[in-house]
Amino acid sequence: VDIKPYSLSHLKVALFSAVPRPHGKSLAHRSELKQAKRIVVKLGSAVVTRDECGLALGRLASIVEQVAMLQNQGREMMIVTSGAVAFGKQRLRHEILLSQSVRQALHSGQNQLKEMVIPVLEARACAAAGQSGLMALYETMFTQYSTCTAQILVTNLDFHDEQKRRNLNSTLHELLRMNIVPIINTNDAVVPPPVPNSDLQGVNVISIKDNDSLAARLAVEMKADLLIALSDVEGLYDRPPGTDDAKLIDIFYPGDQQSITYGTKSRVGIGGMEAKVKAALWALQGGTSVVIANGTHPKVTGHVITDIVEGKKVGTFFSEVKPAGPTVEQQTEMARHAGRALASLDPEQVSFLLPQYGRVLKYLIPQDVFSREGRSSPLIDRLSLSSAKLNSLAIGLRQLAVSSRDSVGRVLRRTKVANNLELEQITVPIGVLLVIFESRPDCLPQVSALAIASGNALLLKGGKEASNTNRILHQLTQEALSSHGVTDAIQLVSTREEVEDLCRLDKLIDLIIPRGSSQLVRDIQRAAKGIPVLGHSEGICHIYVDNEASIDKAIDIVRDSKCDYPAACNAMETLLIHRDLLRTPIFDQIIDMLRTEHVKIHAGPRFASYLTFSPSEVKSLRTEYGDLECCIEVVDSMQDAVDHIHKYGSSHTDVIVTENEETAEQFLQQVDSACVFWNSSSRFADGYRFGLGAEVGISTARIHARGPVGLEGLLTTKWVLRGAGHTVADFSEQGSMKYLHENIPVPQKGFS
């Protein structure tokens, strides 16, 4: 084996006896790819080259950066690369053009240059001219990351001859031991042109004629954990990419080959997707996991390799373990199809279905189906399904049944555009909703009921802490739906899907609604590129006690807002006290009440300055505690309280306690939050308490829906135009018709 820079593309068939690695079992799930220690990265011709002549330097630089980073993490990286022929072709063309230009200048004069013709360049000559330059480029790039490389050039003899094969194996192992990245290619300068032959033969034999089969062979030979094959397509499609209805396959299993229709081979390489799939399946049988992904897309090339190793949903993952149920993509398609049937149910059917669903929930026997050990009390509160919660759910569903009558298909506006041309704006479902919720099993029936009432398909992803409860509640939901033949409209995602991967299904999901911690919401808002997100990242709710507040009202409101359910997003987190109330009975009684309720107090900067011995000073005035803790701060006036809320609040729910109506109205008008209350607990910010029946969450956004989002927030509109052969030309200056645009009254039939 020659340890020098080198390329691979036209290696003639060579047959080898595969030696499966001990305990050679491929990784079953994407999430396990983080465990991959030894990784082979195969760079196809389309990835390495640019326009079939020359190298794609930007792409190569980003790939080198990722490989070096993984190598420096302690992984063992190997690269199988193309590119020598393309690099050599670029160099030879340049030399030929330069040579012709010089000769013409010498013999014909400067003003009579003839058109220069470049002869057809032989591939082996190009490889010979490009191999050293390609390796020099790799060495220069890897040196930037203090990573050493070595070139391995192979020919047929290195695979035919058992001794040479052992030498190759030994050389690669020694390089990996010394923390060197081997860069492997065929010696295209001396190999004969490829000839048609069988590509793969059986379990123990592989014929090598291109980068794909070589990468698979080396991966199995070296007992690699992962083979990443980068090409110019997103992965494996069920039919040629670009054709109608072509779908990217997330996970491919042995035996699925018959469901694939392959297209033409690569525009620059000698293989194609069929060759890649056969090589991938062979490597999979040998115990190496495989991912085929796009290495040319400018938006993902810079992190495609690291994303794959982190287990993200990139490209097509080859797995031997086929899950019992449908994939999340299949679940989404099933939900969308059944959702259309759900939206077409008669209002009477829906109003019958919802109370029936509520009665089933009401008579559930509350019991914990999770371990309390090691869990905080707020988490236990969220996980528990108490009798009170179940009863509230049942009541809410009855409310929803009443308010949902005629909600879908309701006419909002009717306009007579012209004679016999009438326009209507009507309410319709949004489509497919994805609701992601953490440790809140009571969220499942609430959201399911709203999906039923609004005619939306629903995908549910719950936290693992409540997986048993979620499974039981989902079964009850499907039983209720089965009476109308729309069981599949609500799906529970139970596969090992990462939340970030679900957020990438922009062609399948229409709206994401997160229910959980502020960190979860922020992560989803970042990850959901192309899908709208409805929700709030934090619930930093304020109670402002004015200097004209009632003592009894203030104590009751503060107690209820903080202590009724401290883990709720509408619980008080900051108590603002008017400066005049310090060292007065109302202030002392509020503090005594909080201590009696075991509420830990954090002092704001101004409050701390008034005290000789103060509680621990707050680290941030923008904190959501979610427990029996709160911050107390002092303000000079109602306006000062408003300014504080705008600076440190989250636009969720804010309250004023005062007997001065003028002050209260100013507060209600000025505070720019989704919910603003006067003399009432912040805990009223809830869809059930507002009479909405249920809510999917509270939104602090300023478009579509704000505050508790119930049935109305899950509907959108469409325009329906009914005409009689009208054309736009009829309304031109030469036309015979005129626009009327007359509003037609819309009767509100039974809508609550």
Automatic annotation (TrEMBL):
Which InterPro entries does this UniProt record tie to the protein?
Answer: AceGlu_kinase-like_sf, Ald_DH/histidinol_DH, Ald_DH_C, Ald_DH_N, Aldehyde_DH_dom, Asp/Glu/Uridylate_kinase, G-glutamylP_reductase_CS, G5K_ProBA
Q: Output the CDD domains linked to this UniProt entry.
A: AAK_P5CS_ProBA, ALDH_F18-19_ProA-GPR
Query: The Aspartate/glutamate/uridylate kinase domain covers which part of the protein?
Result: 37-294
Record's catalysed reaction(s): L-glutamate 5-semialdehyde + phosphate + NADP(+) = L-glutamyl 5-phosphate + NADPH + H(+); L-glutamate + ATP = L-glutamyl 5-phosphate + ADP
- Stored PANTHER family: DELTA-1-PYRROLINE-5-CARBOXYLATE SYNTHASE, GLUTAMATE SEMIALDEHYDE DEHYDROGENASE
Q: What is this protein called?
A: Delta-1-pyrroline-5-carboxylate synthase
Which pathway does this polypeptide act in?
Amino-acid biosynthesis; L-proline biosynthesis; L-glutamate 5-semialdehyde from L-glutamate: step 1/2; Amino-acid biosynthesis; L-proline biosynthesis; L-glutamate 5-semialdehyde from L-glutamate: step 2/2
- Tell whether Ribonucleoprotein is among the UniProt keywords: no
Q: Which family does the similarity line name? A: In the N-terminal section; belongs to the glutamate 5-kinase family.
User: Which GO-annotated molecular functions does the record name?
Assistant: ATP binding; glutamate 5-kinase activity; glutamate-5-semialdehyde dehydrogenase activity
Q: Name one GO cellular component term.
A: mitochondrial matrix
User: Could you mention a single GO BP entry for this protein?
Assistant: L-proline biosynthetic process
Main location (coarse class) = mitochondrion
Alphabetical keyword list: Amino-acid biosynthesis, ATP-binding, Kinase, Mitochondrion, Multifunctional enzyme, NADP, Nucleotide-binding, Oxidoreductase, Proline biosynthesis, Transferase
Fill in the subunit field for this protein. Answer: Can form homodimers/multimers.
